[in-house]
Amino acid sequence: MNMPEIIITSKDKAPISHHHGAHADFEYFRHEVTDRRQKYEVSSPREGNQTVVAFYTIPPGKSNYPYHYHTVNEEVFYIISGHGRLLTPDGARAIGPGDIIVCPAGERGAHKITNVSNDTNLVYLDVDTNMTPEIAHYPHSGKIGIRAAGGTRINFATDTEVEYYYREESKK
Fold first, then answer.
1. Is residue 27 within 8 Å of residue 58, measured between CB atoms?
2. Per-residue pLDDT tens over the stretch 28-81
3. Which residue has the higher pLDDT, 82 or 1?
4. CATH, domain 16-160, list 2.60.120.10, 3.40.30.10, 3.40.50.2300, 3.40.50.720
């Protein structure tokens, strides 16, 4: 693996690496600064970047991700332009240019960003810590997502919980 180098860039120089628009309520464009693929596709937690940095653009009336929180990683958002609503465990708050949002790991860091404009994009810088394995909880939809080194990216509905010895058979 190559050693990381200093990166000096801007949103205009960072290519759109991902456009997500498969769900009616959610759409975003991600401009990667660091290689996000390394976040969970490394072979061990010691590889890859310690932080993942990207610019996000959320179109009017859309959200980036469902309401969620992480058990391990923290996220920081710096709002560059546009206006939005940040949903938190304490309710919704208006966000706009110059605001910085720090979401700690755990339930108190649960969040969802929505662009409240009818005609202007919401643009922000996203900086995440990059520790693996990670479990993301989605309280509104009753699911969890497991992310781990080696490319593991799976989601489960929490109402399908099984007991600890489920499908374990004696191997005597």
1. yes
2. 999 988 875 555 555 445 556 678 899 999 999 999 999 999 999 999 999 999
3. 82
4. 2.60.120.10
Q: Could you tell me what percentage of the chain is helix, strand and coil, using 3-state DSSP and rounding each to the nearest 5? A: 5, 45, 50
Measured from the Cβ of residue 87, the count of other Cβ atoms closer than 10 Å reads: 18
What pLDDT, on a 0 to 100 scale, did the predictor assign at position 76? 98
Instruction: Please choose, from the candidates 87, 83, 41, the residue with its C-alpha nearest in 3D space to the C-alpha of residue 68.
Output: 87
Distance CA 54, CA 136 (A): 19
Judge whether 47 and 38 are in contact, CB under 8 Å: yes
